[in-house]
Design brief:
Elements: E1 3-6, H1 14-22, E2 28-31, H2 35-43, E3 54-57, E4 60-63, H3 65-76, H4 83-105, H5 112-137, H6 149-164, H7 173-183, H8 188-193, H9 203-213
Parallel strand pairs: 1-2
Antiparallel strand pairs: 1-3, 3-4
Helix pairs in contact: 1-3, 1-6, 4-5, 4-6, 6-7
Bound molecules: glutathione.
């Protein structure tokens, strides 16, 4: 069974989980919960760039979430029909990577207001562009006439935004419709209801990451260097 090695949370592994789900591939989350577990993973020689997530699938050790989602897109036929579709998928997925970064960082911000302001501003930049793309494409999907990985990662990102800013899709009906349709897609429905779906990222996750990586916490935390290893 494919194994996904990562911290105990969504983070940079979450797009891969959604792509495994939409491919209806059963997988196992392997939580890396201590510096020792991370050291063992590093020692196993499976991390080409010394980073997580790691996806073990089809006899491959995949690094870089952008490569994982594309591998799974090709594997499952979620990369569009033509070269033009494929490059649109890549463009949209690239924009989504820029867009979702603010959501990935939200729990690391000093206050909820700071996080919300950053999310609002990022949505104001990208939301209308994604909406326009959907309107122009006209099929209900962002590329071609069927679901692609661009839609999956876009809805994964929107789902995170909505957890912080419910109602943010009120003025973007095409995005709201895409959101609904992807959340109903076979595989995604089951994944989101499963124990493999980690809860909304919060400060426990921020602490967990610092503890595993033995690095400093964000500066607003008390005793911010509590996990930093002293050589
Ligand atoms: N672009 C990479 C980023 C990977 C990354 O930054 N991983 C972090 C955890 S989220 C990591 O392993 N950091 C430890 C290190 O770089 O030593 C991806 O999307 O997979």
């Amino acid at each position: 069974m494919p194994q996904l090695h990562y911290f105990r949370g969504r983070g940079r592994a979450e797009t891969t989980r959604w792509m495994l789900a939409v491919n209806q591939i059963t997988f196992e989350n392997i939580p890396i919960a201590s510096p020792r577990a991370l050291a063992a993973l590093r020692a196993a020689g499976k991390l080409p760039f010394d980073q997580m997530p790691l996806l073990e699938i089809d006899g491959l050790n995949l690094s870089q979430s952008s490569a994982m989602i594309r591998y799974l897109a090709r594997r499952g036929g979620f990369y569009g029909e033509t070269e033009t579709d494929a490059v649109w998928c890549d463009m949209i997925a690239g924009a989504v990577a820029d867009f979702v970064e603010t959501a990935l960082q939200a729990a690391f911000q000093p206050t909820k207001d700071v996080a919300l302001a950053a999310l609002r501003s990022r949505f104001e930049k990208f939301g209308p562009r994604f909406e326009a793309r959907l309107a122009e494409n006209g099929s209900g999907f962002s590329v071609g006439g069927s679901l692609t990985f661009a839609d999956v990662v876009l809805v994964e990102a929107l789902t995170s935004y909505l957890e912080w800013l419910p109602g943010i899709l009120a003025d973007t009906p095409h995005l709201a419709a895409l959101q609904e349709s992807v959340l109903r897609a076979p595989g995604i429905v089951q994944y989101l209801q499963s124990a493999q779906r980690y809860p909304v990222t919060n400060t426990d996750y921020v602490i967990d990451v610092a503890q595993v990586l033995q690095r400093a916490l964000p500066s607003h935390f008390p005793d911010q260097n509590r996990f930093v290893s002293v050589p």
